[in-house]
Design goal:
Blueprint lengths: L3 E5 L4 H12 L3 E6 L12 E4 L5 H15 L4 E4 L16 H28 L4 E5 L14 H21 L5 E5 L17 H13 L10 E3 L2 E2 L3
Parallel strand pairs: 1-2, 1-4, 2-3, 4-5, 5-6, 6-7
Antiparallel strand pairs: 7-8
Helix pairs in contact: 1-5, 2-3, 3-4
Length: 225
């Protein structure tokens, strides 16, 4: 049977490119969008209302995938936000920080938890989340504290899930796509959405006996946490 993928933030930027890559690889792709009526995707990709900050929306999206396809093999946590005007940590705006964490950390966590029963029922469940080098403890810098903390926490969540899932059939990893030219990354970024999506598609489609557990990757290679 055809494998099925659900992608949050799947109607734009890196998420859209991931969906197109997975569809080209032969998967059935469901692209989550907060407002599907105003969103668009490539031919053959399904649109599904999905707001990762809303538990009811998350539950409805997972149920829709289950009811339409009877399975879920790949979950991609691509939805994310960044405020370029965010004050430094020394003068933090906690309302802004909370809004960023709600999407980038809790949104991914909420969707992963909701999708886990279907992923566990799949023969080769995969979870791939989009992180950022700005969340790396290895070379942590200043500025954008909400975004940085959200991605560092997402990395930690991935390691925790990997430990709890163990060596079973569900594998979870994160990908740093680099600085990508999207609405969030701006046109100044040097990488295309397709380049940013490549490692996600690679992890989602590689042979089952080669899939790592709890790793962080950029350009198909491990990078420091």
């Amino acid at each position: 049977m055809t494998r099925v993928a659900l992608i949050s933030g799947g109607n734009r930027g890196i998420g859209r490119a991931v969906g197109e890559g997975l569809a080209e690889a032969g998967l059935t792709v469901v692209a989550g969008a907060r407002d599907p009526d105003s969103a668009s995707v490539a031919d053959g990709i399904e649109l599904q209302q999905l707001d990762v900050t809303d538990q009811a929306s998350v539950d409805a999206a997972v149920a829709a995938v289950r009811d339409r396809h009877g399975r879920l093999d790949v979950l991609v946590n691509s939805a994310g936000i960044l405020s370029w005007d965010e004050p430094p940590a020394t003068d933090a705006d906690f309302d802004v920080m909370h809004s960023i964490l709600e999407v980038n950390l809790f949104g991914a966590w909420r969707l992963t938890k909701a999708a886990l029963p279907l992923l566990r029922a799949a023969p080769e469940g995969r979870i791939v989340s989009l992180t950022s080098g700005m969340g790396s403890l290895n070379d942590m810098g200043g500025g954008s504290p909400g975004y940085r903390v959200s991605k560092t926490a997402l990395n930690a969540m991935t390691r925790i899930f990997a430990a709890e899932l163990g060596d079973g059939d569900v594998r979870i990893n994160v990908v740093c796509p680099g600085w990508v030219a999207t609405d969030m990354g701006t046109t100044a970024a040097p990488r295309t959405p397709q380049e940013g999506a490549d490692s996600v598609v690679w992890l989602a489609t590689m042979a089952a006996d080669e899939v790592p557990q709890g790793g962080i990757f950029r350009d198909r290679a491990p990078i420091p946490w």
